[in-house]
Design a protein that fits this description.
Layout: H1 9-19, H2 24-40, H3 45-49, H4 52-56, E1 61-70, E2 76-87, E3 93-99, H5 105-121, E4 128-133, H6 142-156, E5 165-168, H7 175-189, H8 209-227, E6 236-240, H9 244-255, E7 259-265, E8 268-271, H10 278-289, H11 296-301, E9 306-309, E10 320-323, H12 332-340, E11 345-347, H13 356-364, E12 368-370, H14 372-375, H15 377-392, H16 398-420, H17 429-448
Helix pairs in contact: 1-2, 2-5, 2-17, 5-17, 6-7, 8-9, 8-15, 8-16, 9-10, 12-13, 15-16, 16-17
Bound molecules: glutamic acid.
């Protein structure tokens, strides 16, 4: 078939929309990748012939299951659980589990699709997957969370394994939930194996995993600035979120001499003009991980700070912005506000936090913009190292893992520059990440023939 006979981007997207009705997040994620890949494969007949992009945009399988559990008042509750196994061309499926009321099949399909490219970019042998449930851990007792996690794993265990699919944490799933799920897996299978990452240090966890995603997003930012002869020292940063990713991103910004002005949760954001230093970050970690409180309490405790209810932090003037909360949390107007306030770089700790229109604003303004699939890949990369440690039954220390993370992020930045430099000095990091991530998976798929 001649190249000119191939479907064009809009025809391809019409097919994706028809096959995935109403799955807006998934369609958005596919479009963001497809627009770059179509240019890249224009003259590469083998990718067209083998329908590679069409195949990557169709998950290998989507498993959906019922999760029953009993709350503290003895009511029987029913939730839906999923595991989306998107692609295992270059390694076992790998990707987190999200517990949040906004979780749908569309959200998990977008996350598993993104994860495929992200994991490929790390250079480690990991395919892409994602799972989760519409269970809301907020306000639940430890015992309720434990019963839910055990019930979730009682079904999930049959679909995963260290050589098959290795889940980890994501929004609503941290050390506590991973512990309950790992304990249940071990109990059902009678096997101690590296089936989950993000485990506690005592039972095979990596000493660097909690910090990895947030630190990695800042290392990526540092690499972008360095590429332009600049650094984080003295820069003001606006960060959204206050979970694992956001607090560790804040910590690394502070360590590198920057000043963090904001953090947020679903109730609003706090703005601290004095800067959120390490002591304050530790206070927030305790608030969120131990007391399981709300970010608004920060403004009661640190009286120079203000709380902005139901607002996002993007109108606070800053040099760099790190969206570290969730998908589509930064829209076109907010991107324009950041640009008009002089932002020079954006590094995404969350997955797809900027809308397609917002990304266009950053590109048009020639802002350094790193998409989540590149900038937040440090988390899953250190998960990949945790898998290696579990297989070898060894443990690496914090310092060694820190060096490996720094190197991995430098490598990912380098790949993005290689495939994303437009030749005019401006690096399109979205294009670079999409093409570099795609190429490795696509070439492996070509080697397998039609499967
Ligand atoms: N949920 C994280 C991500 O979005 C980490 C996944 C993992 O460690 O497997 O990449």
């Amino acid at each position: 078939m001649a190249v000119s006979d191939h479907v064009n981007l809009e025809q391809f997207m019409a097919g994706v929309e028809k096959r995935n009705p109403g799955q807006t997040e998934f369609i958005q994620a596919v479009r963001e990748v497809a627009q770059d890949i179509f240019d890249f494969i224009e003259d590469k007949e083998e990718y067209h012939e083998a329908q590679i992009l069409r195949r990557i945009a169709e998950p290998d399988r989507v498993v959906s299951f019922r999760v029953c559990w009993e709350d503290d008042n003895h009511n029987i509750r029913v939730q839906r659980g999923w595991r989306v196994q998107n692609n295992n061309a270059i390694g076992p499926y790998k990707g987190g589990i999200r517990f949040h009321p906004s979780v749908t099949e569309s959200v998990l399909k977008f996350l598993a699709f993104e994860q495929t490219f992200k994991n490929s970019l790390t250079g480690l042998p990991m395919g892409g997957g994602k799972g989760g449930s519409n269970f809301n851990p907020k306000g639940k007792s430890d015992a309720e969370v434990m019963r839910f996690c055990q019930s979730f794993m009682t079904e999930l265990y049959r679909h995963i394994g260290p050589e098959t699919d290795v889940p980890a944490g994501d929004i609503g799933v941290g050390g506590r939930e991973i512990g309950y799920m790992f304990g249940q897996y071990k109990r059902i299978t009678n096997r101690w194996e590296g089936v989950l990452t993000g485990k506690g240090i005592e039972y095979g966890g990596s000493q660097m995993r909690p910090e990895a995603t947030g630190y990695g997003a800042v290392y990526f930012l540092q690499n972008m600035l360095k590429h332009k002869g600049d650094s984080i020292e003295g820069k003001t940063a606006v960060i959204s979120g206050s979970g694992n990713v956001a607090t560790h991103a804040a910590e690394k910004i502070v360590q590198l001499g920057g000043k963090v002005l904001t953090l947020s949760d679903s109730g609003g954001f706090i703005h601290d003009p004095d800067g959120i230093d390490q002591d304050k970050i530790d206070w927030i970690k305790h608030l969120k991980n131990v007391k399981r409180g709300r970010i608004s309490e920060y403004a009661d405790h640190f009286t120079n700070a203000s709380f902005h209810e139901d607002k996002r932090p993007w109108d606070v003037p800053c040099d760099v912005a790190l969206p570290c909360a969730t998908q589509n949390e930064l829209n076109e107007d907010e991107a324009k506000e950041l640009v008009s306030n002089g932002v020079i770089a954006v590094s995404e700790g969350a997955n797809m936090p900027t809308t397609l229109e917002g990304v266009k604003v950053f590109h048009d303004a020639k802002i350094m913009y790193a998409p989540g699939k590149a900038a937040n890949a440090g988390g899953v990369a250190v998960s990949g190292l945790e898998m290696s440690q579990n297989s070898e039954r060894i443990s690496w220390n914090h310092e060694r893992l820190g060096d490996m993370l720094t190197e991995l992020m430098e490598g990912i930045h380098g790949k993005c520059v290689e495939f994303g430099d437009n030749g005019d000095g401006y690096v399109d990091y979205v294009k670079g990440a999409n093409i570099a991530g795609f190429k490795k998976v696509a070439d492996a798929m070509l080697a397998f023939g039609v499967v």
